[in-house]
C-alpha cells in the first residue's frame, strides 16, 4: 500500500475525478450502515423503493450532492439479502467505498487503463452491472471494481479495451439493474483478482478480514483527488 500511496502522490496531476464534484460548492453526506444507525429498520431495508427514498431524503435534507462511506465498515444492512449468508459465517465487512447519488450519474475512469472484465451480477443484493478495470501504476498492477452500474454501461465492451483517464466509463444504475439497491457506485481496489472475472467479493467474513483488507486497500487513496479530502 505504501507503494500505491507514493505513486498517487507523485502522479497527482494525472488522476481524474471519479464523479463530478466541486469541493468548493458541493457537500458529501457520511452514511452509516452499522448497527449504530437505529433509523434503518427492517421495514426500510426490506423494500428497495423505501430504502431508496430514505437515502435520497438524507441527501436532500443535508443539501449533499452525494453520500459516501463504507470502507472497512461492519454493516448490518446485508441481512436484507441471502447473497451475503454462508453456512459457516455471514459476510458483513464492506471492502469498498460507496458513493450514493442519482441513477444516471456519470462515472469516470480515474487513470488510463484497460477493461479487465465485466458482467451483470444480477442476484438480489449483488452488484448488478459491473466493470473491472486494470491499471499499470508505475509497474504495479491495480484493479478497480465499479459496481451497481446501469446495464447500458456494459453494452459493447471488450476485455482488453483501452479507456483513457477522465473518460466516462459508466453511469449509476437504477434499482432494477443494480442488484436492487438505492442508486450508488461501489468502488473497490483489488491487487490480486484471484482468477475471478467480472466479479470479486465486495463484502467478506470478519474472520477473513485481514487477508481481504490487505488485498483491497482503501479507495479513499484515489477518491481524495475527486472530493478534495478522504
Automatic annotation (TrEMBL):
Keywords: Signal. Coiled coil: none annotated. Residues 93-191 form the M23ase beta-sheet core domain. The keyword Signal applies. It comes from the Bacteria. GO terms for molecular function: metalloendopeptidase activity. The keyword Cell division does not apply. InterPro entries: Cell_wall_metabolism_enzyme (IPR050570), Dup_hybrid_motif (IPR011055), M23ase_b-sheet_dom (IPR016047). PANTHER family: L-ALA--D-GLU ENDOPEPTIDASE, PEPTIDASE-RELATED. This is Peptidase family M23.
